[in-house]
Amino acid sequence: HEKDQDTKSNALATLSNAILRDRTIVKHIENETSRLFDMMICDGEEIRYLDVLLTKCASYSEISAKQIASKLDALVEYIIRKRKKSIISLLAHAVQHVKDISSLHRALDFVSSLVSTKEKSTTCGNAIQILIHYATHKDGCAFLEKQQDKNMIPRLVDVLKSSKHHRSTRKNAAVLLAKLARSPSLMKKIREVRGMEIIMTLSRDGFI
Q1: Helix 152-161 with 167-180: angle, nearest 10 deg
Q2: Stretch 63-77: mean pLDDT, rounded?
Q3: How far apart are CA 53 and CA 133, in angstroms?
């Protein structure tokens, strides 16, 4: 509640570090999630560590994740406006509690652009998690077919093959490819880059 930005930032950093040591601390602040989220997306001066704290809350508290999910439109708008990669993990936790994916349409191009061997494994992995949830919905694959990012599938296969990324990220890349393969046109693209063949080889050899 302090007006001084540095005081706020120091308090947020302290809470974030404390949660790393003891996740149960989230229980004491989860009911503040909605207020903290509103502070983050306001047009005033950016408060350092606020997005970090919110991500930790959403990671360890279903109550926090659901509060953020209830404000998905505002979160997507914020991501589009700021194009902040650090917020992608917050979105990844929130979408797990969302039934209507229409709000995600506008953020899809930015999210899919993060599926790349050039990105950090956590950033790439969070983007893939969002797309898995998206593709699970009946309209998801249809919308992915129409999106402008035509190189997402080749990049997804690159992530699958990359030793740079965590095993969990590569496994999620395989899951997403399998979901996209339900679409005949996307399956054709996957076959063109030998996606299914690579999945079977990596799975047989224990790499995913």
Answers
A1: 140
A2: 94
A3: 23
